[in-house]
Design a protein that fits this description.
Structural class: mainly beta
CATH architecture: Sandwich
Radius of gyration: 16 Å
CATH superfamily: ApaG domain
Helix content: under 10%
CATH topology: Immunoglobulin-like
Distance between the termini: 38 Å
Number of strands: 10
Shape: elongated
CATH class: Mainly Beta
């Protein structure tokens, strides 16, 4: 089993952070973005989008079957989300293939974090986890930068 790698990088023109981690030939990259236009701080309603890129950088095909997220809100609330696939799909990735999707979460405070894993299976039936890096959610008054 390959040693998990985690990295936070701040890059690009809009300097939005992204986070990635590689385990067992699957690299997962997440870029969170605060959505001020959809949030209402006075009502303790902070909306964050996150963009996920799943890359098969290993030698074998793998299919994503399940997901498990832990969402931590700085007010001390933790939420666990488990289910099949991602946004209604269970993508099968050949070596070199990529699957991308976006989703969102709502916090009651200005900050928190998310992390988790995807459950995969190889063609030979071997199950494994693709670890999702812990990424920070931080509300800021600046534009969302979704362009």
């Amino acid at each position: 089993m390959a040693k998990p790698r985690f990295r936070r990088n701040v890059g690009g023109v809009n300097r939005r952070p992204f986070f990635y981690r590689e385990t067992d030939g699957i690299r997962i990259t997440v870029r969170p973005v605060y959505l001020p236009d959809q949030s209402s701080p006075a009502r303790r309603h902070f909306v964050f989008a996150y963009f996920v890129r799943i890359e098969n950088v290993g030698p074998d095909a793998a299919q994503l079957l399940t997901r498990r997220w832990l969402i931590h809100d700085s007010v001390g609330e933790d939420t666990e989300v488990e289910g099949d696939g991602v946004v209604g799909e269970q993508p099968r990735l050949e070596p070199g293939e990529v699957h991308e999707y976006q989703s969102f979460c709502v916090l009651r405070s200005r900050s928190g974090w998310m992390e988790g894993h995807y459950g995969f299976v190889r063609d030979d039936g071997e199950p494994f986890r693709g670890l999702i890096p812990r990424f920070e959610l931080e509300a800021s008054p600046e534009p969302s930068g979704l362009t």
